[in-house]
UniProtKB/TrEMBL annotation:
Record domain Fe2OG dioxygenase: where: 140-240
Gene3D superfamilies (alphabetical): B-lactam Antibiotic, Isopenicillin N Synthase, Chain (2.60.120.330)
Listed name of the protein: Fe2OG dioxygenase domain-containing protein
TM helices/strands, residue ranges: 80-98
Protein family membership: Belongs to the iron/ascorbate-dependent oxidoreductase family.
Amino acid sequence: MEPILASQASLRAFQCDTGIKMLSDSPNLKSVPSNFTFINESAAASSDSIPIVDFYALTSGDPDQRSKAIHHLGKACEEWGFFNILYIYIYIYIYIYICRDVVVEYTERTRKLYRKLVEAVSETLELETHYVNEVLKLDSSFQIFVTNLYPPCPQPDQAIGIPEHTDPGLFVFLIHNGVAGLQIEHNGEWFNADSPHNSILVNVADHLEIFSNGRCKSVKHRAVVNNETERISIVMANGPSMDAVVGPAAPLVAKDGAAFYSSMKYEDYMESLVTKSRYGKSLLEQMKIHGN
């Protein structure tokens, strides 16, 4: 599958971001214009508790080593919804002009990593790999490639990079230029999501929470800005097929005695994101069946 590079929504976002970039480059910019003001409390605690998953152990031929890594992955998905994965050779640096061939290569490499993670988390859920592949139609899985530029901001407390949100899909990968800025919510508290060198920050996305019937957690996160250094992040969102109808896995519903989320075609979910805020609830919250 070829990467999704643009849509009408992303074009509008690009036009807006271009205006922000021009604004940030202005030599006379001393404050955030009122139409861009976003009052926020960006304070967050530092944490070295965000789990680190060793990809080599996860794919090891040693059953004991692999079993421990899979258990660690399962705990990370259930307790944090975020983890760092050590995978040194997957880095492909993309500079000012995005080369189509490089993007295609990057999507192919991350797709392999993504499938390995789905396979491993399926084991923690005691689901057969072929069942997961068939239900989610992973042979035609949908990927979205996004790059984000956060220029220095003269008043970081008056602006936000990206407001708090969760992501659609199963797993989302993020690498950046070494400048911190991502924060995640854990047990009602915000933490700075610092990534070790040569690692990929991975977060559980909405559809893994739905498919696992709530065992894996898609947690809120946000991007904040600073007044000194430009931040660049590269994000690869990995989902099921656009044709897949995603709901709680039937074997897990049988164990739990009920489905805790409704089902929806992935394509419809993606389209609904443009109007996801309804009565203050995210689309993921709307999918929850609160009567159970």
